[in-house]
Design brief:
Strand order of the largest sheet: 2-6-1-7-8
Structural class: alpha/beta
CATH superfamily: P-loop containing nucleotide triphosphate hydrolases
Bound molecules: 2'-deoxycytidine-5'-monophosphate
Strand content: 5-15%
Helix content: 40-55%
Order of helices and strands: EHEHHEEEHHEHEHHEH
Number of helices: 9
Radius of gyration: 17 Å
Number of strands: 8
CATH architecture: 3-Layer(aba) Sandwich
Largest sheet: 5 strands, parallel
Length: about 210
């Protein structure tokens, strides 16, 4: 093993990070990827880009097939900036309108099929990486080297996402956890970490210890 926990000469690790909104996924996965020297994929940004495009096209986010058609034709690039059909939507996909619409888009099975396919290709092309979302350990990458499920108290999660509001956050979590298609759940074999009151460094050190 090298100092950063990576097996020298081997492939990059595949790490799945799941959890509800405000559980610390983005912060922890970004720090973890930096420590491992691998890339990170924010899959929530992909669902948000589709929701943004659906709203721009005047579609009902819950319309089903029309939204899936749009997802199949939309070019999405998720890095430090996020683009949809070449347009920079990094800030736009975090708007309250998109946050309200995204759970309906993510509950559409055909949208998930398309985005899950792209997520698996992203990992295959890089030979590893840190991927964060809701169904990464359960559906997208069930054979990940490490699966982590982050949680935090409802109060802490609402505080971290104060701009969305506690009620809107609770509503989104309820839809994400009860939908028929790949609901948010603790994947088989996932390590559960409660991030309430813990620093990013503490959580990242603990996760690195499992690789
Ligand atoms: O991580 P986030 O809050 O930006 O995600 C936005 C929405 O996308 C979330 O409410 C549920 C959905 N999502 C999903 O269904 N599956 C994923 N792998 C990632 C996000």
């Amino acid at each position: 093993m090298s100092g950063n926990g990576r097996v020298s000469g081997g492939h990059s690790p595949v790490v799945a990070i799941d959890g509800p909104a405000g559980s610390g996924k983005s912060t922890v996965s970004r720090a973890l990827a930096a420590r491992l020297g691998v890339e990170r994929l924010d899959t929530g940004a992909m669902y948000r880009a589709v929701a943004w495009a659906a709203l721009r096209a005047g579609l009902d986010p819950a319309a089903g097939e029309p939204v899936a058609d749009l997802a199949r034709s939309l070019a999405i690039d998720v890095g430090e900036r996020v683009t949809a059909d070449g347009e920079d939507v990094t800030e736009a996909i975090r708007s309250p309108e998109v946050s309200r619409a995204v759970s309906a888009v993510a509950a559409t099975a055909e949208v998930r099929t398309e985005l899950v396919d792209r997520q698996r290709r992203w990992v295959a092309e890089r030979g590893g990486g840190v991927v964060e979302g809701r169904d990464i350990g359960s559906v997208v990458l069930p054979h990940a080297d490490l699966k982590v499920y982050l949680t935090a108290s409802p109060e802490e999660r609402a505080r971290r996402r104060h701009e969305e509001g506690a009620a809107a956050l609770a509503r989104r979590d309820a839809i994400d956890s009860t939908r028929a298609a790949s609901p948010l759940e603790v994947a088989d074999g996932a390590r559960v970490v409660d991030t309430t009151g813990r620093t990013v460094d503490e959580v990242v050190e603990e996760v690195l210890g499992w690789l």
